[in-house]
Amino acid sequence: MKTISGIEELRAEIAECRREGRTIGFVPTMGALHVGHAALMQAAGGRGDVVVVSIFVNPTQFGPGEDFEKYPRNLERDLELCREAGVRLVFVPRGIDMYPSASTTVIHVPELGEGLCGPHRPGHFDGVATIVTKLFHIVTPDVALFGEKDYQQLKVIERLVRELNLPVQVVGCPTVREEDGLAVSSRNAYLSRDERRQASCLYRALAEAAEAMAAGETDSAALIARMTGRVLQAGPAKIDYIAIVDPRTLRAVNPVRGPVRICLAVRIGGCRLIDNVAASPGGPVRREV
Ligand code: AMP
Question: Is the pTM of this model over 0.85?
Answer without folding.
Answer: yes
